[in-house]
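ARCHIVE CARD
CATEGORY: sequence design from structure
SOURCE FIELD: tokenized fold
FIELD CONTENT:
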């Protein structure tokens, strides 16, 4: 591959837009400078290029006579073929790097992305002689997973991958709307819901072959309790005991009648005890779980998964999943490969006969940092901003996946709600009451929310409110942030919104507000009925909405990405497909 890149280096430096086959005057010193090597090594490289038939070389004779190099391969085709070759070998990182380095002045990038459009999706690959064919799924995403550690999971894509790699004591079946056994085949609790006992299945194997026991469960849960982002999942836990190799008892300080729902969350995934004898840092390079897929490779450029042959619920049909992280500058709308992003061919609303699109269980919202000094300390200022940032107008102007104005976290609570139109006199009165003096508001956002952020800045500026948009890495010091929540586990994920150590609400709300919220959550967990819990969660939501600590903006469309041969395809609440459920109907 190096010699091919050296051809591109010379072509980019000396061709000056000339067609192939046209001699160009150069010196060996020029070549060595372009190749960052000595003249002697430049001669060796030149000889290889001539042997390959890619260049012709006519050395200059006598003092002052230049040598002539003739490039025989068109740069665009040569670069495209190199990128395709790298991608077919699974080296997407270097394929994108070569395209980024040498595609200037060509259509190679657009042609490569067009090739990727056909490359991604279902692939049946013939095995070596005597070996069966394999079924693989290859698809791109725009952002790499931030972590594979369930204890620190807070993003939907991360959580989705962790569900493929690890198992939990219990599972919530979205189709049946009930909890079903996971690695625990049975569980029970006392009348007060303060003592829960879980009975593990026999024969569950981690990816390295070790059988799971109660020691692994204790290790995983106790690790979670040690100041991790997801320690809230074990809120109120007093102690965890192994009553035998396959029995675990958990005692709580206070009743929690949905503790079994907590045990369905990805954060309480089971790891092998003591990281299977590895150093923790090394373990997360290729983590071991007991889920339907094992990790083959993991980097910021690519994630490879392979089927876990001894998965207790049955081996997945897919042999492998290859997730390619696209470069940051690959804007799907501008380069025309929207159809390959996230999964495969997009299943759009118009393909469903005009049916109402499914919506993500969750919403996009603006959260105010009321612990930080600034205009957002004034409730009147927050109310004014809430009136100005009308969700219906945001959706009408920006469109895209923004479908329904949000009244709260859940689409079902927002449907049928009418959000009052902007009343200028009320906005003026609220701004006057707030005594706003023009201090800029710092809004921290991820790149994917840049359109929303620009709209917010424009709208607020029309009322004299200055907004400075910053990178999300500064969000802890910002005055507000834009974020989306996904309620994958109903009530439990709503609690996570308030209690996860990395979520904006927990870090933005002051101690008084958080203590009140936690006390209401305690009340909800003691409640006998789901409706009683729902009423308590509505009370918390109404409190945040009424004082405008949170401005609910919109609910987004839940996109499915399908391929005509794919079967078993349905979206989980995180908006992804469970890979273990996919099978491929193709007979050739």
């Amino acid at each position: 591959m190096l010699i091919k890149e050296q051809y591109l280096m010379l072509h980019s430096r000396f061709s000056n837009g000339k067609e192939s086959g046209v001699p160009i005057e150069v010196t060996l010193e020029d070549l060595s400078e372009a190749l960052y090597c000595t003249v002697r090594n430049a001669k060796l490289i030149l000889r290889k290029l001539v042997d390959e038939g890619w260049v012709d070389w006519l050395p200059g004779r006598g003092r002052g006579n230049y040598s002539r190099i003739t490039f025989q391969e068109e740069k665009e085709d040569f670069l495209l073929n190199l990128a395709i070759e790298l991608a077919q070998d699974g080296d997407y990182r270097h394929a994108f790097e070569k395209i980024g380095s040498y595609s200037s002045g060509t259509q190679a990038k657009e042609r490569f992305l067009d090739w990727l459009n056909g490359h991604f999706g279902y692939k049946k690959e013939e095995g070596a002689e005597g070996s069966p064919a394999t079924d693989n799924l290859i698809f791109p995403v725009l952002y790499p997973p931030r972590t594979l550690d369930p204890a620190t999971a807070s993003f939907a894509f991360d959580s989705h991958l962790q569900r493929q790699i690890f198992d939990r004591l219990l599972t919530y079946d979205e189709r049946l709307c009930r909890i079903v056994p996971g690695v625990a085949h049975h569980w029970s609790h006392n009348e007060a819901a303060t003592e829960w006992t879980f009975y593990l299945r026999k024969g569950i194997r981690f990816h390295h072959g070790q059988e799971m026991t109660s020691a692994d469960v204790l290790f995983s849960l106790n690790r979670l309790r040690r100041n991790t982002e997801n320690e809230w999942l074990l809120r109120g836990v007093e102690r965890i005991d192994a009553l035998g190799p396959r029995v675990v008892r958990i005692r709580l300080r206070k009743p929690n009648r949905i503790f079994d729902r907590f045990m369905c969350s990805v954060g309480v995934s089971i790891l092998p005890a003591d990281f299977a004898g590895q150093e923790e840092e090394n373990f997360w390079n290729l983590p071991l779980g007991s889920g339907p897929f094992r990790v083959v490779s993991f980097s910021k450029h690519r994630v490879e998964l392979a089927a876990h042959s001894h998965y207790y619920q049955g081996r997945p049909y897919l042999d492998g999943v290859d997730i390619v992280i696209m470069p940051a500058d690959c804007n799907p709308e501008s380069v025309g490969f929207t159809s390959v992003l996230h999964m495969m061919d997009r299943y759009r609303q118009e393909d469903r006969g005009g049916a109402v699109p499914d919506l993500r269980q969750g919403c996009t919202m603006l959260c105010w940092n009321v612990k930080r000094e600034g205009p957002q300390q004034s409730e009147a200022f927050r109310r004014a901003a809430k009136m100005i940032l009308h969700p219906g107008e945001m959706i009408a102007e920006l469109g895209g996946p923004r479908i329904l104005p949000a009244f709260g976290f859940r689409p079902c609570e927002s449907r049928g709600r009418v959000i009052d139109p902007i009343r200028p006199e009320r906005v003026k009165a609220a701004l006057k009451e707030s005594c706003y003096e023009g201090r800029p508001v710092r809004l921290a956002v991820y790149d994917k929310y840049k359109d929303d952020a620009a709209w917010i800045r424009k709208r607020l500026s029309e009322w004299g409110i200055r907004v400075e948009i910053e990178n999300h890495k500064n969000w802890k010091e910002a005055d507000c942030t834009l974020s989306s929540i996904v309620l994958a586990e109903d009530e439990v994920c709503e609690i996570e919104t308030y209690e996860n150590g990395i979520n904006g609400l927990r870090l933005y709300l002051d101690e008084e507000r958080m203590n009140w919220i936690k006390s209401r959550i305690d009340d909800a967990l003691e409640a006998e009925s789901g409706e009683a819990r729902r009423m308590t969660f509505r009370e918390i939501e109404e409190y945040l909405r009424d004082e405008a600590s949170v401005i609910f903006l919109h609910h987004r469309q839940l996109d499915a990405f399908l391929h005509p041969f794919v079967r078993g395809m349905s979206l989980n609440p995180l908006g992804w497909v469970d890979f273990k459920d996919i099978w491929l109907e193709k007979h050739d």
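CARD ANNOTATION: DSSP finds 20 helices and 24 strands in the chain. The radius of gyration is 29 Å.
SHELF: design records, drawer C
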